Amino acid sequence: MSMVDQTRQDDILVLSINNPPVNAFSPGVPEGLKAGLDTAQADDTIRAVVIIGSGRTFVAGADIKTFNMPREQAPDLRGTVEKLDQFSKPTVAAIHGTALGGGLELALACSYRVAVPEAQLGLPEVKLGVLPGAGGTQRLPRVVGAAKGLEMMLSGNPIRATEARELGLVDELVQGDLLEGAVAFARAHADARPLPRISERSVEGGSPEVFAAARESIKKTHRGQLSPSLIVDLAEMAATQPFQTGWEAEAVKFMQAKDSPQSRGLRHIFFAERESAKIPGLSKDTPTTDIRSAGIIGAGTMGGGIAMNFLNVGIPVTIVETQQEALDRGLGVIRRNYENTAKKGRMTMEDVEKRMALLTPSLNMEDLADADIIIEAVFENMDVKKEIFTKLDAIAKPGAILATNTSTLDVNEIASVTGRAENVIGLHFFSPANVMKLLEIVRADKTSDSVLATSMALAKKIKKVGVVVGVCDGFVGNRMIHRYGDEARKIVEEGAAPQDVDASMNALGLPMGPFQMSDMAGLDIGYAIRQHQAKVLGQPKPDGWLDRIVERGRKGQKTGAGIYDYDESRKPRPNAEMTELIDTYRAEKGITPREILQEESTKRLAYSLVNEGAKILEEGIAQRAGDIDVIYIYGYGFPAYRGGPMQYADEMGLQNVVTDLEKCGQTPAPLLSRLAQEGKTFAQYDAEKARA
Ligand code: T1G
């Protein structure tokens, strides 16, 4: 069956693109469209052409999976666009769902565009590390002007058809049946001559200042990225050069961006995020329950943040504390968070009241008896959690999901105190829970498929990126960050200054290095974990340089001083006393400090994550290397254009990673060594596992 069906409506030829699920521009689609245009060209009774998407959307863009194809085999979107641009009869793009990337470029090459009001139109290519490569950089600014065109291409965010109509990007909004409206529009414009061609228009507002401002802004918004600057260059060409010049330059710059490690990283994460939602053994038929009410135990920072996620999507929450004062404080924080958002104009005060009305405070856990899900978010102590789950087991209705927000503790042990282990799961939110998108979904040994599937669906509903992980100390993210922290402290012991270690990860694109992050999270948290682990393992009390800093009462930003000093701007400033403390520590340990170059520090830290990630994969705690990448990008600020730690290792070459790990005294995980020896990548490991 052709990917583009041709049907006649009297004097109008309708080309329906049929490539589910999103009508991406896959091989077969350009051929079908060109054939349709040839049909229309050859038949004088056809006065105009309508191009529409079958199913739920117009064309959602080039088929990203074809980016690695040899150029001659890749779908000819540019050729199709050129044919449309030169076509001698009126063409009308009929848009519903999304017209994104190549989809919008296809529409821009048509004579006209009509759309249903709720359709979305955009050029999101920058989010994949590329740029509009089929005329978008030249046509969009010719329709909406330089500033708006730059804003749309650099943000990559779509606009609604109603706004597109105001901008002239859409010629008519169709209220009823889209096809009917498009055919009528085509018929009404069948004799329009000369045909409107965007390529013949000029760009409004393309002053040098506009492009200079854009170049300035991307230094902050897209630090270290390639494609945004290429987009600005091309938009400037659209404003200052003939169309053909910009059109040809666009093809060259597109290839340059597409072949960059940054684009490979962003494309990797695009698919990895979607893959992470697929759980072997679960299918669309796995029964799920509809979560219509939530109970949260603990109104502290985490409990309050978690509650907001439910309130934001209209799910009522009962939040329980043990003391009225703690309850009042918790509610006050939630209200203030919403009011701050309202002050920024991102919601109205009416929205604030609507959300707060869904929140019921309580001092009594019995009030959670009817909740569909209950999430415990109290002090990170196993005995406290066990006590709570014992009570919940007696209170919660049958079938209620009992979730713990623990960040490291054994969910199997927590489940063991209930008579319903199949309903117990870990939902590890990241602080601030109302902001961070990552949700580690901790599958305990007895967690039922239905509870797991319901939790995955809930993650999507509350706009989180849910990744399933197994039970171990720290699950995936925190287990890796502990190793990363060990390595960071070791690099300082050997001679580096904390600020240089942080700079080595800032250079990789992380907004915060290990010590900036520790100071923000609170040094006492890591300190307590190290003390606890030493006690459990019967090891001597830890006495590292960082432990000594904590023992001076310097707990990080929250005490105004940690590894660094902080003024009201919270900008970290090195402290001479701490430098001296570290020097004294090294002397006591008989360490002669050596210079450690930034490149060594970056590799040791990044590879400490990769090595622990390889162990996590071997143990089955994470299903895929791609899942680990999703966790690190959405939970720990790893730059998406690097694709995550595992993708970064693939780019560096696993054999090089093994060599560098051995050089700095880290023992490569067996899986990492095996893949390196076989000349494979983590991506290949994931693909082979998916095929198994
Ligand atoms: N190419 C290939 N596969 C795609 C795809 C695409 N463009 N878009 C989606 N998919 C797959 C996706 O992997 C998933 O697969 C399924 O479709 C459903 O997607 C030349 C170079 C359209 C808003 O960046 O933003 O055009 O997991 O789960 O939540 O200038 O998909 O089912 O196997 O995301 O309803 C520009 C990317 C490309 C749009 C729908 N276009 N897609 O969201 O479904 S570059 C984009 C999206 C380009 C030209 C340039 C979303 C969506 P599976 P989904 P959704």
TrEMBL record:
- Taxonomically, the superkingdom here is Bacteria
InterPro entries associated with the record:
3-OHacyl-CoA_DH_NAD-bd, 3HC_DH_C, 6-PGluconate_DH-like_C_sf, ClpP/crotonase-like_dom_sf, Enoyl-CoA_hydra/iso, NAD(P)-bd_dom_sf
Question: Does the entry feature the keyword DNA-binding, yes or no?
Answer: no
Looking at the Swiss-Prot or TrEMBL record, what is one Pfam family this protein matches?
Answer: 3HCDH_N
- Assigned keywords, A-Z: Fatty acid metabolism, Isomerase, Lipid degradation, Lipid metabolism, Lyase, Multifunctional enzyme, NAD, Oxidoreductase, Peroxisome
Q: What metabolic or biological pathway is this protein involved in?
A: Lipid metabolism; fatty acid beta-oxidation
Q: Where are the transmembrane segments?
A: none
Per UniProt, subcellular location reads as: Peroxisome
Name the chemical reaction catalysed here: a (3S)-3-hydroxyacyl-CoA + NAD(+) = a 3-oxoacyl-CoA + NADH + H(+)
Record bears the keyword Transcription: no
Task: Outline the subunit composition.
Answer: Monomer.
Q: What is this protein called?
A: 3-hydroxyacyl-CoA dehydrogenase
Q: Highest lineage ranks of the organism? A: Bacteria, Thermotogati, Deinococcota, Deinococci, Deinococcales
